[in-house]
Amino acid sequence: MSKQFLLALCLCMILVGGCAKKEERPKAEQLVNVVEARNLGLAYLEENRLDEAEQEFLKVIMHAPEDPMGYANLGIVYMRKGEYASAEARVQRAVDMVPEDPDITLILAEVHEAAGENEKAEGLLIQSLRKAPDHVRSLYRISEIYLKMSYLAPDDSSIQIKREKRLVHLVNLQPASMPARLQMIESLLTHQLTDSALAHMELLVQQIPEPPKEAVNPIRDALKAMQAGDNPKASRSFRIVHNVLKVTARYQADLIELKGAGGANVGFPILNFSENLSQRIEDESTVLKTLRFTDATELSGLDFVNGVVPNGTVSVMAVADFDGDNSQDIYCSVWNGEKNRVFLFRQEFGEFMDVASESGLKHGGVDLDARFADIDNTGHLDLIVANTAGVRYYQYDGENQFEDSSSSLGSGEEIEAKALLPGDFDHDGDLDIYVLKNSTNLFWRNNLDGSFSETAGKMNIDGGNVNSRDAVFGDIDDDGDLDLVILDEIGPPRLYSNLRQGQFEKLDSVGFEKGGSTLAAADYNNDGWLDLLVVGNNRTELYRNKGEGLFEKVSTPFSAPAEDGHFFDFDNDGWVDLVIAGKDKTALYHNKKGEFEDVSNVLPEGMTGGRMLDVIDYNQDGDLDILMIDEDRKIRLFRNDGGNINKYLNVRLVGLRTGSGKNNHFGLGARVEIRAGDLYQSKVVTSEVTHFGIGQRLKADVMRIIWTNGVPQNLFFPGSDQDIVEEQILKGSCPFLYAWNGERYEFVKDILWRSALGMPLGIMAGEMAYAFANSTEEYVKIPGEALIAKDGKYKLQLTMELWETNYYDDVKLHVVDHPAATEVYIDEKFAIPPYPSNTIYTVSDKKLPLSAIDGEGNDLLPMLREWDYEYVSNFLLTDFQGIAEPHDLILDLGDLKKSDDVVLFLHGWLFPSDASINVNRSQSSEGSAFPPKVQVPDKNGDWKTVIGSINFPNGKDKTCVVDLSGKFLTDDFRIRLQTSMQIYWDHVFFTVNEPDVEVVETVLSAVSADLHYRGFSRMYRKGGRYGPHWFDYSTVTAGPKWRDLTGMYTRYGDVTPLLESPDNLSVIMNSGDELTVTFSQTDAPPLRDGWKRDYLLYSDGWLKDGDLNTATGNTVGPLPFQGLTAYPYGPEQKTPEHEEFHTYLKQYNTREVKGDLFRRVLSQEGDK
Asked: 756 and 833 in contact (C-beta within 8 Å)?
């Protein structure tokens, strides 16, 4: 057989659209013949049996002469035989039928290329891309043609311009494709577009797994050289990076996605019939009539396991693409009564090859469970094994080697565990390990510094002295966090609801009845709720999730005792089916929209019972195969032939590494929802690939990923084989302030930044410490040109657009009049209580530093001269948002010998971390970020700290004021600002001996305040990729964007009395709400001649974000109040009890938000 074709076939997610207008519709009996011939033809192509494949595709043409699929695949057969004239004739026939189909046109272009007719291939692709400009493989193919042309005409710049245009489009469509991104960077550097190359390099580093060690320093060197604009040095370093990465499995797998396996296996076979024939196939249930499972154990090479160890029996197996080559691999172990032998089967062109001995995997004892998971958050799958001799933890280095790191588990490596469950149960961005035992269970919290802490007792999930057998995770109660279900051998399963902040609660009387040996979870009836299958020696039971923590046992045809069960959609119709292995037989049940029927007839004749099940798309043809340890404890593989008649969607999540750290790399534990027409599905991510069948629908309409940090991400019309790269979505940054500028409302800045109710800061004295609970008492500047009176009124819009709830207690507008030649500023940096007094700083003579450099001597002054949204950004990020590598800003202020008062002004913005990142960093010995400190030279020329912290900007577009008076130790008036926070400075200046300037300040109270729903403004980055998130008020979308914090909010309408004073009578706003606040211009004095007017907004209140690690971050309550000393607070503190407060609650806080709208966005349950 041909090994190469299996790899090519893995990429064949081709959606054929359209058909001839006068298609001849085969009769029902012919329909079955067409499908069977198609299935056999593809199988023969897979095995490179080209003569037999030719005969089958001729049958397809005979029974369906007006369908292009048969002609296109017959053309591939002839192309592989080298019969290019015949190939061209057949594929041209298919193209004539569907000239708009880019997949078939690509085959014809490849026929021309194979025949040496490159010009014809180019012309075809140009025409095809006019009709289908987003066709990924055509874009890559034509970019390769342009590359060849550039070698022949190196001085023709137009060729490179055309290539770059195609590559840009390709990268936008396939952002996770390593070859496309690297080729884009190389092309940009060649044309001296260094900053553009840097933008792509930064994205590449965010997405790829931890690179080989040979690439680490060159990546760093390339980034630094690009930041400095040194193109020659950047190009040299990048060439090393490219050469190292291009030999990695990930690069090669991505390359095959773009161009196929090549060689003798040129061409991507067409899997699907035309639209009309596809509909007939669905209507006639032809899929089930023709689908068969075939025993492929010997063909795949897995029979090697069953014979290599005398008297051996397979103990466990685990499936994953451990080496990142987009083909799934298998770990298994065999015990012969005396010793254990482990196998690691890497898939190479459809055959499994054992590489365990050279990979470093070896241990004794008997394996009881095995799981692949990225425990160390490097983007590479590690291996954890439960064994009678203890738990083994192997870290994978991405270069074919596993390192035994079991000692990092402490005494855990000696524990006999029955099963292991990795997951991000504390939602801090890394994977922890739940350990099931015959007695008290364990929870190993990942500290992400190479150590683990056992915390099951503290988290209330140790289970007591029971005999646990299996466990699953998922958002059982649909509140946005990962819950845990534990199956014991005796007694009903136990459901633990995640209360967040590392706490779980066991729920009683949820509807479960008996224990068992294995557990499976899936949404079998597509209602959005996760259901459970309990398999055991007594019986097999299916439980439907009714919501609110309650389950109902469902009557099914598979109640007999069994060993294992697995949900999977074997026919790709969009409804998960079931395979159940018993002691005597294995049965397959087809899901007919929530009802199961036995279709075991499609399994191989004589198929026995089994001990353990898994599913795998081993030949990557789009349908799921069955992997089983049979009743004799031998490993068996049963290939699915025909399930891919229906279309499918494979989803691979890519969590960002550098500059994020909010989700594990593979998105384990995330929830993925899709809607395709009237079909809705939801699945929990439990491996690196999540498979959806979509029937005969051409594609999904929308996909929503709810990452493990709770942030949703939407994708419209996703491709059939889709890598979903995590978007670095701003989820929390306080309310937004918009002002009327005379023409429109424009974003000014964010407010209420001082408050972060329930924000975890770190572990202190063994307990989590939280941010202070004081209200904000915050001032921010509104430039005069940003706020213009309209009809005698100043109008502001205060909006909630992120995953937060705010509580406004007082709002005032300060009118600040001053001479036009003088500027005024307010200190807008973060401060802790007691807050400094409100000081208005005047600037009459703005002075710029003589120089501004970084720690490596790069000139930064051009970016700091003006407030122009061009930011200093030449620092390297760590793995976590908000935390950078320590970096310097060195300013030379010139000769200040005669200067008594020196005040420094720094204007910029902060990209903050969040609650979950704070929790993660508090567990690690590596610590978190430190704010800017000020250092000056001492008499020895060494830098000495004179201000330990100047704090940081309160969000976006804020000015930090630093008094440097008396801080210099010598006549060297340089200062060094050093920090590891992700702060972007835009403008720096200082004043010397600033004179007293008259300023007139008038305080205005609101004359009206109206609360209403508005929605969400369009978000973009002001000033490019290093600029702050900005918002276009004129473009708004409605509907739920975030999971609501549930509880009672302020009712819509007039809320003016609530903003008069800080009296605990707050306006409570939900995400999507807007508060329109109006002030009277006539309450301010007339502006003097030669003077200018600016404004300060004073806001007092609180803010709480919905981060999964924010204390009570899922509810509005408990309500904050003035004088609060801690949040969350205990019984020693409570909300006011006076009558005015109770009246306020009854009169204003009457709008209840339950949070169910967020779930119904895709599932469309209930009212629209």
From this structure: no
Residues 6+ apart with CB under 8 A from 1142: none
Quote the pLDDT of residue 923.
Answer: 77
Confidence at 280, pLDDT banded by 50, 70, 90: low
Other beta carbons less than 10 A from residue 774's beta carbon = 20
* Nearest Cα residue to 934 out of 916, 947, 922: 947
Closest C-alpha to 652, from 731, 571, 574, 720 = 720
Q: Evaluate whether 1097 touches 782 at the Cβ level (below 8 Å).
A: yes
Across 291-311, average pLDDT: 90
Tokens encoding 1123: 């004088």
Across the strands, what pairs with 610? 630
Is residue 45's pLDDT more than 80? yes
**Residue 92 pLDDT > 90, yes or no?**
yes
Q: Is 866 left (phi over 0), alpha (psi -120 to 50) or beta?
A: beta
Residue 647 structure tokens: 């279309």
CA–CA distance, 916 with 911 (Å, rounded to integer): 15
| Phi/psi of residue 304, nearest 5 degrees | -55, -40
Q: Which of 906, 980, 974 is nearest to 935 (CA)?
A: 974
Check the CA dihedral 764-766-768-773 and report its sign: negative
Q: How far apart are CA 982 and CA 660, in angstroms?
A: 11
What pLDDT, on a 0 to 100 scale, did the predictor assign at position 27? 61
Classified as helix, coil or strand, 142 is: helix
Q: Work out the number of other CB atoms within 10 angstroms of the CB of residue 336.
A: 12
1073-1079: average pLDDT: 98
**Backbone conformation region of residue 8, classed left if phi is above 0, alpha if psi is from -120 to 50, else beta:** alpha
Mark residue 587 as left, alpha or beta (left: phi above 0; alpha: psi -120 to 50; beta: remaining). beta
Q: Is the pLDDT of residue 419 over 90?
A: yes
**Banded pLDDT at 464 (limits 50, 70, 90):** confident
Dihedral (CA of 953, 957, 958, 963) sign: positive
pLDDT score recorded for residue 515? 86
Residue 81 contacts residue 114 (beta carbons within 8 Å): no
Mean pLDDT, residues 516-533: 95
* pLDDT at res. 546: 94
Residue 411, pLDDT above cutoff 80: no
Q: Which position has the token pair 């299958």?
A: 533
Amino acid 294: pLDDT: 93
Distance between CA atoms of 150 and 172, rounded to whole angstroms? Answer: 23
The one-letter amino acid code at 1065 reads L
How crowded is the C-beta side of 950, counted as CA atoms within 13 Å? 29
Q: How much is the pTM?
A: 0.90
The alpha-helical segments, DSSP class H, found in 115-135 are 118-131
Separation of alpha carbons 872 and 985, rounded Å: 6
Percentages of the chain per state (helix, strand, coil), in multiples of 5: 25, 35, 45
